[in-house]
Write a structure and sequence with these properties.
- By secondary structure, the protein is of the alpha/beta class.
- It is 51% helix and 14% strand.
- The protein has a 3-stranded parallel sheet, with helices on both faces.
- The protein starts with 5 loop residues before the first helix and ends with a strand.
Length: 93
């Protein structure tokens, strides 16, 4: 019976995840990222989202757009993400 140590098992589990995320990163290389915020402008969620967008944009070297959709208790924002192109560049906050 073969015995593997915890670091080897962890490496075997992590490597496929890294490879798939690298190939996904290549597909997402073009176009801006959109953060759809379900609260109005000026609130704590909006402010935090804009700070996050700034850091994300600097780290990825891409533009990150924050879009506020406060109507419907978050339903308008969720529908905005649902109806976005399925390219993985639209996120819900």
């Amino acid at each position: 019976m073969l015995r593997f140590s915890a670091p080897i098992i962890t490496a075997l589990a992590v490597v496929p995840c890294l490879v798939s995320s690298l190939s996904a990163a290549e597909e997402l290389a073009s176009g801006p990222i959109t953060l759809i915020v379900s609260s109005s402008a000026g609130g704590i969620t909006d402010t935090t989202s804009r700070l996050y967008a700034d850091v994300l944009g600097r780290n990825l070297g891409r533009s990150v757009v924050v879009e506020n959709r406060p109507a419907g208790g978050g339903g308008a924002a969720a529908m905005g993400v649902k109806n976005a192109a399925p390219d993985g560049r639209t996120l819900l906050v």
